[in-house]
Amino acid sequence: MAAPPPEPGPARPAGLPVLLTTALVLLAFVPPMGIDMYLPAFPLMAEEFRTDPSGVQLTLTAFLIGLALGQLVLGPLSDRYGRRILILTGTALCAASAAACALAPSLETLTVLRFLMGVSGAAGVVVGRAVVSDTAKGPAAARTFGILMALGGIAPIAAPLLGGVVINASGWRAVFGVLAAGSLLTFLITLVAVPESLPPDRRHAGGLRSTLATARSLLTDRIYLGYTFAFVFGFAALFCYIAASPFFLQYALGLTVGQASVAFAAGALTATLSSAVNARMVGRISPVILLRTGLATMLASSATLLALTLAGQLHRVVVIGPLLLFFVGLGMIMGNATALAIQRVPHAAGTGSAVLGTLQAVSAATVAPLMGVGGRDVAVPLFLGMTICVGLACLALRLTRRPAAAG
Questions:
Q1: Which DSSP string corresponds to 227-254?
Q2: What was the pLDDT predicted at 296?
Q3: Are residues 341 and 251 in the same domain?
């Protein structure tokens, strides 16, 4: 008799369809493009609306507040009503609000529209990740999230460069036209490629109340809070630079719009490369050590920049080294702090991620308008804010120390 055929081994995990992955990548691109693409236009917008830097930066704050609230609301709603309807609705509203931003007659109108753009754009972040969790498991999910994170690192590099080109060619309002067209393209691809990934029998009505109850339990965990606030304040330091860099690079250093776009992209590229190197080092060096090293590097570089500013030695050549070191340190803290925080609460990883993301957006929304308190002279507020935020991140790590045993 012939030997029975061998039993099949475990199936190789299948990845998501290419078109679905493309749609999820585009959904993840909306927030960073909405943040970074119009940054080079801040001085032009301030002149047109006859306002100071804080007035223009308020439009960025409004977007971030909307992004934070949108994550808190849309995530639980997608668990109750399904993913597809919220993604399609959010993407359509994001395209409409971006188009309206291009026609905004006043700064106040633009600020309201930016808030709506942030709320609707949050659907691509929080609900898009839920679609990955619904449709892929294990290695396939990890691979998809890896693609999204890698491509997400490209957006902050490409956005200011593309924004600079569009602004030079057609003015700042054209930036929002491009964002509207991109959101519309995302809507059309999502309409075709993203199915409903949460069937009715898996939906629940826990909603926002359940999410907030779980979040309250996380806020009593000192170690989770320590790593979370290390991430949040580290990101706030970055956002000090994001909000002030258009004025700092163009007014303090005398760069053109195109040169400022290249300079901003260089910082984002440095942070992306540092993150890639950090990912290869994690298996050999403890992420806690890498996190502490990154924060120490950021603190030393921002304090150096503040000292140079106060000493009146702020020149293009002098600031390059400390700024690049700041972004090297940034690449070492973002992934490590996030991983350490979420690993601390495996029983509530989704809510832990939502709390971290919401605090991230709130911190960025808080520091952005503070960067314009000195008018065009943004160097001192910028480097003082960066130093304070990184110092607070370092202090937050003290919460992660376990109390010594009695006796």
A1: HHHHHHHHHHHHHHHHHHHHHIIIIIS-
A2: 96
A3: yes
Asked whether residue 258 falls in the same domain as residue 326, the answer is yes
Provide φ and ψ at 315, rounded to 5°.
Answer: -130, 160
pLDDT lower than 50: segments of the chain:
1-14, 142, 404-407
Tally of structural domains, the chain: 2
Using CA of residue 387, residue 390, residue 392, residue 398, what is the dihedral sign? negative
| In-domain check, residue 92 | yes
Domain stops at, among 132, 160, 195: 195
pLDDT at res. 149: 59
Q: Quick check: is 236 in a domain?
A: yes
Cα torsion 32, 34, 36, 37: sign? positive
Global pTM value: 0.71
Q: State the Cα torsion 291-393-160-36 to the nearest 10°.
A: 120
For residue 249, the enclosing domain spans: 218-400
CB crowding 170-188: b at 16 or more within 10 Å, else e: eebbbbbbbbbebbbebbe
Structural domain contains residue 201: no
**Does residue 49 lie within any of the structural domains?**
yes
DSSP 171-223: -THHHHHHHHHHHHHHHHHHHHH----S-GGG----HHHHHHHHHHHHTT-HH
Cα–Cα distance, 159 to 371 (Å, whole number): 21
- Which among 372, 252, 398, 396 has a CA at the least distance from the CA of 323? 252
Note the pLDDT of residue 354. 72
Output the domain CATH number for residue 312: 1.20.1250.20
pLDDT, position 268 = 81
pLDDT for res 401: 80
Asked whether residue 139 falls in the same domain as residue 224, the answer is no
Distance CA 258, CA 265 (A): 11
How far is residue 219's CA from residue 241's CA, in Å, rounded to a whole number? Answer: 28
Residue 84 · residue 131 · CB < 8 Å = no
Please indicate, yes or no, whether residues 231 and 315 belong to a single structural domain of this protein: yes
What the block records as the tokens of 182 is 């991109």
- Please give the structure tokens belonging to residue 94: 């994001």
- At 385, list the tokens: 């804010």
